[in-house]
Amino acid sequence: MRMRVIILGAPGAGKGTQAALLSKELGLAHIASGDLFRQAQDRGDELGAIAKSYMEKGLLVPDEVVIKMILERIAAPDCIQGFILDGFPRTLEQAQALDQALSANGIDQVLYIEVSDEELIRRLSGRWLCRSCQAPYHMINNPPRVPGRCDLCGGELYQRPDDAEETVRKRIEVYMAQTMPLIDYYGKMGKLTAVKGEQDIDAVSNDMLAALGRGEGPGEWG
Ligand code: ADP
Ligand code: AMP
User: Fold this and answer.
1) How far is the CA of 103 from the centre of ligand 1 (A)?
2) Is 127 an annotated catalytic residue?
3) Which residues are bridge partners to 110 per DSSP?
4) Residue among 124, 106, 143 at smallest CA distance from 10
5) Residues 6+ apart with CB under 8 A from 109
6) Integer Cα distance of 58 and 167 in angstroms
7) Would you say the CB of residue 88 lies under 6 angstroms from ligand 2?
8) Which of 160, 169, 170, 191 is catalytic?
9) Domain-by-domain residue ranges, the chain?
10) Catalytic choice (4, 15, 38, 123)
11) Residues of the chain under the 50 pLDDT cut
12) How far is the C-alpha of 84 from the C-alpha of 78, rounded, in Å?
């Protein structure tokens, strides 16, 4: 069965962590807009250069640039059975462009991970990512088995420059102003499920699977 899912949440809420687990469990493509921009920067192409100037300031990349990149990506063959969007849409304009591009009822579920601001800052200041496969770790909550190395592929772990505290505060402010309206947008469509993000990773994952009608979490039983 085709399944198209959006994961919403502030920077550090756990979108990447959960999208990776869900995509494995459900066999869906995991599409992370931030990862696509970082890959473009590593390749040294024009998209990467445009994105970098916004990302390093904690600002959103302009809508037309992000929308074009994502609509091209979801047209790829690995998205025919569905996908999990992580970090897109982040503005009303992006959400409307996505709805227009997909057929009626295009998005099946929007899962919103709720986490307090203090916890977001704690998570991002301890976040380390794999340079090769982007898997996220946390030095206290979710450490790698071998220090400095990815459990999944052995790649080198690094800290994102935009995870510096001042930039994190800006990113949260931008999220509140530009992305929070999407909660209402998808809520009114009846597609939104909120999940408590301040539980351990597996508990969050179970709640998300239950909201998608898989597994046995509280989402199914109330
Ligand atoms: P996002 O993609 O929303 O920015 P990440 O998935 O990268 O967030 O998670 C941010 C940080 O928080 C990472 O270091 C990750 O290991 C950690 N983390 C994710 N989920 C949880 C959780 N449920 N409890 C504690 N730490 C978590
Ligand atoms: P993320 O990896 O999701 O934390 O995104 C890192 C940065 O990439 C953001 O702070 C933005 O600068 C940019 N970015 C990612 N996704 C989007 C989007 N949907 N719209 C605009 N900018 C984005």
Assistant:
1) 32
2) yes
3) 6, 192
4) 124
5) 3, 4, 5, 6, 191, 193, 211, 212
6) 5
7) yes
8) 160
9) 3-115+165-211
10) 15
11) 217-222
12) 12
Task: Examine residue 147 and say whether the peptide bond preceding it is cis (omega within 30 degrees of 0).
Answer: no
CA 94 to the chain's CA centroid: 15
171 in catalytic set: yes
Our answer on whether the CB atom of 95 is closer than 6 Å to any ligand 2 atom is no
Please indicate whether residue 2 is annotated as part of the active site. no
Q: What is the pLDDT of residue 219?
A: 42
Locus of tokens 């063959």: 77
Q: Quick check: CB of 31 below 6 Å from ligand 2?
A: no
- Determine the pLDDT at residue 131: 93
Q: Residue 103's pLDDT is what?
A: 76
CB 114 within 8 A of CB 196: yes
Q: How many residues does the chain have?
A: 222
Check if CATH label 3.40.50.300 holds for domain 3-115+165-211: yes
CA of 200, nearest ligand number: 1
Residue 216's pLDDT is what?
A: 62
- Alpha-carbon gap, residue 88 to 8, rounded angstroms: 8
